[in-house]
């Protein structure tokens, strides 16, 4: 079992029993989604924003406009942290203090570099699109050069990371279990609804098989 090294920056203190540094488990959390939260400092102020991403081995790839202040800021600092989180359930307890959520989260720390070559940028953009919707990229028109020129792609190398997972029931005070108060878990799941065609030609076209497959798997 390969683990990320523990240090002051990634060691879990609160709820350490829910923590893991296992590389495979962390990758599973990362591969279950395509949205991450990236932290950066701009004009002396801390800011966090969501970004689409794709993972390949120990690399996370994100992209935006060449004028994107977040990407430019983290490239200048040469490091950042990234968080991915999935909400799995609401934990309703007998006490307000013990309400919680079931979740899977991973926080990554690492270094950055700008992806320069058009070939590499195109390959990475394909990964990002296909992490959102499998097999989508090959159905699209090729990118224009002007689109590539306006796109900044950043490679984030995971130096260290940690994850926390809560997947248990209510944890109330022992004396509260006899109270006539309902407690339990409401499972939460993100679902896909039936695809809606864009106006124009798609209204008269069959929905692609890979889109319907995604709907069937996630409805």
UniProtKB/TrEMBL annotation:
Gene3D superfamilies: Electron Transport, Fmn-binding Protein, Chain A. It comes from the Bacteria. InterPro entries: Pyridox_Oxase-rel (IPR024747), Split_barrel_FMN-bd (IPR012349). Pfam families: Pyridox_ox_2 (PF12900). Signal peptide: none annotated. PANTHER family: 5-NITROIMIDAZOLE ANTIBIOTICS RESISTANCE PROTEIN, NIMA-FAMILY-RELATED PROTEIN-RELATED, FLAVIN-NUCLEOTIDE-BINDING PROTEIN. This is Flavin-nucleotide-binding protein. The lineage of its organism: Bacteria, Pseudomonadati, Bacteroidota, Flavobacteriia, Flavobacteriales.
